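Field notebook, page 430. I keep forgetting to write these up properly, so this time I am using the form the group agreed on. The chain and the ligand, pyridoxal-5'-phosphate, are recorded exactly as supplied. Prediction of the bound pose follows.
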Amino acid sequence: NVNQELSELDKKHFLHPTSPIKQQQEHGPAFIFTKGDGVYLEDVNGNRVIDGMSSLWNVNIGHGRKELGQAAMEQMNELAFSSCFATFSNEPAIRLAAKLAEITPGDLSTTFFTSGGSESNDTAYKLARHYWILKGMPQKKKIISCEKSYHGVAMGATSATGLKPFRDFTNSLAPDFYYTEHLSAQALRETIEAEGPETIAAFIAEPVQGAGGVHIVSEDYFKEVRELCNHYNILLITDEVITGFGRTGKAFGMEHYGVTPDMMCLAKGITSGYAQLGGVVLSESIHKDFMERSNGTLLHGYTYSGHPMACAVALRNIEIIENENLVENARNMGEEMLKGFQWIQGERDLVGEVRGLGLMGAVEILSQGKEPLAPAIVNEAASRGLICRSVVFDNQDTLVFAPPLTINKQEVEQMIEILHDAIHAIEHNL
Ligand code: PLP
């Protein structure tokens, strides 16, 4: 039995990222996936499940798209890798940088490439601090982020992450990171005043918090944040690792708020997970300042910055998002998904608030101060054919969803039905 053999090898040799260690050791992997097709994943036993999370909020164009395999293969066969350090470059990286300048909001114009979201975050913090060194203000080095935020697991990204359990996992963090209450521009003003604006390099926030439980800000929040950053001479960095490339029903999350950041962190949907890639896009004026003031070397770079194959995959992925109107589909199907959540809310006493923006959604479970129930609902839903995720940080008991942007109405209905039945089953067992 292949499943059993793989399961034993997995338990013994594979230390999983962000995993419940005890459960993993006892039971092994719940699914060993072998195939993907659209919104569906299939495992080694032939079980088909809806990938209601686009895996890790990233498989935006859905699974099994041969065009991306083709793009990767063509580039691999032509030029699999060459360096982008110093004055070396390659065509896919150049064309992708130009494409990002075209599709990102406002005057965002120039990209530094990474291999993922954590690296994008660490890069943004370092570039922000270097920017102030170049401007003759080296004391501006603090980074302010939001409570409940998630920015990744590199040392800087962990330090900026507002979800405390991620920071407590290790007992020494990077210095000069501070946190402010999420959703409140007034709280940010107070934090800036308390810390001293002359010591602050940047403020970073997700347009919609993802891992923290899909929290959506008020319409004015980012306008007020932008004004505060301008007023206090602080860079605004937005982390669009989840919200980029159509997830929220706009090409980029900040388009909902009409605000352009100084730097934007990207990853995930940039390749829909078909290759490892991320980036930080700088505004034209920040980039210009960098170029005019720097006469040394930009001493920051990853071996895989501007990886030709990953960039070729990203270009094809963006073309698919555009040609198939997936941003619009995310907006329309997001409305259907939210209506579905509202229907479940009416049917099931266990359901509290429901939220959504495009294809990012959340359903709160009313555990009434008792043990959270969302993890049991996640397991029940998985056994019935739907993958979703629970968020139990900060006394939350919430389910979150982010299906592929290719999802159709029937598939949304299937998702909603399974979710309803899973909640009903757990309710019944109480
Ligand atoms: N930023 C946000 C908002 C994320 O959701 C994530 C990952 O979930 C990251 C950064 C980290 O990205 P990666 O896991 O690619 O390093």
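OBSERVATIONS:
- The radius of gyration is 22 Å.
- The longest strand covers residues 108-114.
FOLLOW-UP: compare against the apo run.
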